[in-house]
Amino acid sequence: MAVPTIVFDLDGTLVDTAPDLIATLNALFAREGLPPPGNELRNMIGGGARQLIEHALARESVKISDRELERLYAGYIRHYAAHIADCSRPFPGLEPALDALAAAGCRLAVCTNKLEFLAVRLLEALGLAGRFSAIYGQDTFGLQKPDPEVLRRTVARAGGGMELALMVGDSVTDIRMAREAAIPVVAVDFGYTETPVALLAPDRIISRFDDLPAAVSELLRPPR
Questions:
Q1: What CATH number does residue 196 fall under?
Q2: Set 9, 11, 20, 170: catalytic member
Q3: Cα dihedral sign for 40, 45, 50, 54?
Q4: 95 and 173 share a domain?
């Protein structure tokens, strides 16, 4: 019998990582003699570090070669890895919600556009890694969200099946991926998104993790 599998996005869904991600970007730009972008790129975090750097450069009308971009990206990753949990914290109510889902027999997994080692390091630093049967990063399978194959492989790695899988995320990337994989999706409205999640038509929207177990139960309830 298939086990319910709940797949979570990481940045802006499980953990408020913006303080450390933006601090890293500010430190990188200051070191390069570029104007620090401040907190204005918070809602662009979901696309990954390379895209975040590209957006920040574009805001300053700075054009660089692909080779220079890779150098900046490598510097970003080094700094962020060393400061990954300085200020990042789980969103309120997360751990009780995970406890409730686990008690209901759900397997939990993470599907993120972070590099896998960074996702694991962050979750370990916050004492959360052991709660998840699988932690997928953009380099785990050589695929990135919103490719639905990413979601299928994450569910399989967690030991679940797509017929009883559900996605929890905060952005159009997560919602589109879940739709293309034909599974229900719950959106949190406190994450990082340029488009309000209410306009993206997820199956449920929650404003606090206290409401997640009930939403999961309703969406994965067998049809009568």
A1: 3.40.50.1000
A2: 9
A3: negative
A4: yes
